[in-house]
Amino acid sequence: MRSVQRTGSGQSRADVRDAVTVSVAVGLVGVSFGALAPAAGLSPVTTMAMSMLVFAGGAQLLVTGVLAAGGGIWAAVVAGLVLNLRHLPFGLALARHIGGGWSRIPGAHVITDESTAFVLARTDGEPGRARRAFWLLGLIKYGCWQLGTAGGLLLGASVPDPSALGLDAAFPAALLAMLVPMLRRADARRVGGAAAAVSLTCAPFLPAGLPVLAGLLGVGAAARRARPGGVQARAGTSDARCPGGRA
């Protein structure tokens, strides 16, 4: 019992540490967004409202980029919606870890790429660990994103190009770090490789956001699991029909 408690306590501390690490990286991306938003014509109030109500780094940066390039507001909104379509399969994958009832509303709001990778990497631990990890990361990450956006607004005037500092690389680097442990499984490597190949192939031809959705086709590379005990069950049935080797 004590060893189980120590294991659970160690996992909890590791989850807190990892959640804080990921959230700090997300906050750095928020700094980048907050610094870039005014250049795209967004007011500080609109920028903070987008971070609180949308809470999707990729979509927010895409909307900012479209506006900065001279695109209209509707083009920016449609581009953000298309990019966020990837949250539909994320929600299906995490539904059982969010809880039921009204908790699904705030839970759906904090589902992101990082949450999906973070939680699915912890589904094989103690019961309830994945759900605790989901809410832990969601709350810390939400707070860090708001702080990062506010900090970016304050620093935007003194740092005209946040990408020159590498802040735009913090998000994909953090996500990759979470995915690496999951690649120990052969089926995960097949799916990841196929998804990457499809996305890279489509990237030159499809608008931003669609290659990510096309990468979902990589799920087809997953092998079908053999039913445990299938051979033994069939052998046992045969033996039962033929006791002593006779029909």
What features would you highlight for this structure?
247 residues; mainly alpha
Explain the overall architecture.
With 247 residues, the chain is an all-alpha fold. The chain has two domains: 2-175, no CATH class; 185-225. It is built from twelve helices and no strands. It has helices at 2-36, 44-53, 57-68, 73-84, 87-98, 104-109, 113-120, 129-155, 170-179, 186-202, 210-214, 230-241. The radius of gyration is 23 Å and the shape is globular. The termini are far apart. The model is unreliable at 230-247 (pLDDT under 50).
Helix/strand layout:
Blueprint: H1 2-36, H2 44-53, H3 57-68, H4 73-84, H5 87-98, H6 104-109, H7 113-120, H8 129-155, H9 170-179, H10 186-202, H11 210-214, H12 230-241
Helix pairs in contact: 1-3, 1-8, 1-9, 2-8, 3-4, 5-7, 7-8, 7-9
In brief:
The protein is an all-alpha fold and 247 residues long. The protein folds into two domains: 2-175, no CATH class; 185-225. The protein has helices spanning 2-36, 44-53, 57-68, 73-84, 87-98, 104-109, 113-120, 129-155, 170-179, 186-202, 210-214, 230-241.
Which spans have pLDDT < 50 for at least 5 consecutive residues?
Answer: 230-247
The overall strand count is 0
What value does the Rg take, in angstroms? 23 Å
Mean pLDDT: 76
Determine the strand fraction and express it as a percent band.
Answer: under 5%
Largest sheet: none
Structural class: mainly alpha
Instruction: Give the topology string: H per helix, E per strand.
Output: HHHHHHHHHHHH
Domain tally = 2
Q: What is the percent of helical residues?
A: 55-70%
**What would you call the shape?**
globular
State the helix count: 12
How far is it from the N-terminal to the C-terminal residue, by CA?
51 Å
